[in-house]
Amino acid sequence: MASSTDVVIVGAGPYGLSIAAHLLARKVPLRIFGSPMQTWLASMPQGMKLKSEGFATNLSDPDRQFTLGAYCAEQGVPYSGTGLPVRLETFVAYGQAFQRRFVPNLEDKTVVSLERTPTGFELRLDDGERVAARKVVLAAGIRSFGYIPPELAGLPEEYLSHSADHSDLTRFAGRDVVVIGAGASAMDLAALLRQQGASVSVVARRSAVKFQSPLGPRTLYDKIRAPMTVLGPGWKSVLCTKAPLLFHMMPEAFRVDVVRRYLGPGPAWFVRDQVEERIPIVTGALVTEARVENDRAHLVLSHADGRTVGISADHIIAATGYKVDVRRLSFLSSQLQSELRRADQAPALSMNFESSVPGLYFVGTASANSFGPMLRFVAGADFTARRLSAHLSSSASHRSAMDDVPMRSRQPTKVSAE
């Protein structure tokens, strides 16, 4: 027999923990599975600093009291809303403290399968337990969606990896490494690999690496011309952060295009002096061939002017981002996969984050094509947690009220034909 609960949350990162905190405050019965902040611990390089400013890096509790700033004040950790990069270990410790305070019932277990049943869903855990749930919220993060370009995909895994595969970079000391990409992950990795004693080169498809600029003091004119948001300054960002429901109402093709194009690769300003003039960066280059030769990975790079250049290394790291594709969530049953309607392989969601499978919800990066670019970042956790918890608690309250009504009273009223 499977144990039963109203809501199951899969994932214990910023979104999963925030949603759980709100639901528990509303007394909604739930179970939540996952290791706290696991993606940040296992898929981000040690020593990294977050690209997001401190004020935009908060998990969401119902009273908006336990912010990153509040945690740092409690612990005596240096903090500033802007201008002082947030260290990865600080953010992870904050998330873990949030979990202990607001989600003490977190179960450090892995969901290995999810299937639909006549009354909802059944989940099977890595310890063999089966759990029945009426609603399931997938807050599984980005780890499953790491994207490797097809030009590289033929390399054996001992010569090729994704940036999300690396937390500890010490194994690359003394080795030649080529990092593919022009964004924050690529530049962060390149700088940290160099610190570990690796010989690093970067290959970027873009014609130039465009680093962010530090915010610095802002005049009244600056604030009017480009208001500050959790996504950075600008009126477009105002719309993305203040009107995710309006964004949801836009045509699907428009939404997908905006999410793909807006806030593209842009390394943080504080990494610039660790990379420029210290690490060779080949820009405007496409990888057209990748092979292994003499126990090294060899790449052929093509430039717009027709030139081709060869480059080799002991290992290639693809810091080429993430592409949401629900087919890569291997724990979803084939039936669920076939029933999910998609928007560019991401799940198409209702205004309450519900997929085309009733009772199955997706949050975080997987919901960005429905609600906008803010949902790709930690900053989207507050909007998500408040809206989804209100929806789920409302449906739970309705079901509880129905449970108190005698079955005969639930029969539809007969309507006269007159």
Can you walk through the features of this model?
There is one protein chain. The protein is α/β, with parallel strands linked by helices. The chain has 2 domains: 3-145 and 322-403, FAD/NAD(P)-binding domain (3-Layer(bba) Sandwich), CATH 3.50.50.60; 160-211 and 266-318, FAD/NAD(P)-binding domain (3-Layer(bba) Sandwich). It is built from 13 helices and 16 strands. The chain has helices spanning 14-25, 38-42, 68-75, 88-102, 184-195, 220-225, 235-242, 244-248, 252-261, 272-275, 334-339, 368-371, 381-403; strands at 3-10, 30-33, 111-117, 120-125, 130-138, 160-162, 176-180, 199-203, 281-282, 285-293, 296-303, 308-313, 315-318, 342-343, 346-347, 360-362. Strands 1, 2, 3, 4, 5 and 16 form a 6-stranded mixed β-sheet that branches. Strand 4 and strand 5 (130-138) form a beta hairpin. The protein is globular. It comes from Methylocapsa polymorpha. This is NAD(P)-binding domain-containing protein. Pfam families: Pyr_redox_3 (PF13738).
